[in-house]
Amino acid sequence: MTDATSRSVNPVPATAGWLGYLGLLPFFAQAAAAVLAPPGPDSLASHAAYGVATYGAVILSFLGGITWGLTVNSPHLNNTQGSRELIYSMLPALGAWAAILLPTTFTLWFCAVGFLVAFIHDWRTASLHHLPPWFLRLRLHLSLGAIVSVVLTAVYR
User: Fold this and answer.
1) Number of domains observed in the structure of the chain
2) In a domain? residue 7
3) 29-52 pLDDT, tens per residue?
4) Which of 64, 142, 149, 152 is the most buried (most CB within 10 A)?
5) Is residue 85 domain-resident?
6) C-alpha–C-alpha distance, residues 140 and 157, integer Å
7) Does 2 reside within a domain?
8) Helix 44-72 with 25-36: angle, nearest 10 deg
9) pLDDT of 48-77, one tens digit each?
10) Tens of pLDDT, residues 112-155
11) What's the CA dihedral at 37, 43, 45, 47 to 10 degrees?
């Protein structure tokens, strides 16, 4: 089956697609302000960069919550893999919280790496959680959008 055929057989549900892509708007808008606005310690650019960092932390927490929800609904919950999944599900929120306490540039880089790790985790555990093919395609697009926004903000900050 070709990739185009796979997409047409397993389309992203409309609500999931719209909500996912709309969730990129805060990343894109704040990254544009962080990159294009004049710099300064209390400038729009500075506040926008902090906004990208904090929104990134919130979204990382959300991604951990997805894993928690999938795991507690799984028959594998009482085995070692289930325990590892529950432990992993808490790491994005705890890491993002700690990163927010540090300088904004560090938080931005933490979020970029966190989005990459979260996508790799979802890709590696897709069969364990019985994820539909559309989910990983959507996660790839959303992860790339978030990573590009966060990295551009970190580099041009």
Assistant:
1) 1
2) no
3) 999 999 999 998 899 999 999 999
4) 149
5) yes
6) 25
7) no
8) 160
9) 999 999 999 999 999 999 999 999 988 777
10) 999 999 999 999 999 888 899 999 999 999 999 999 999 999 99
11) -150
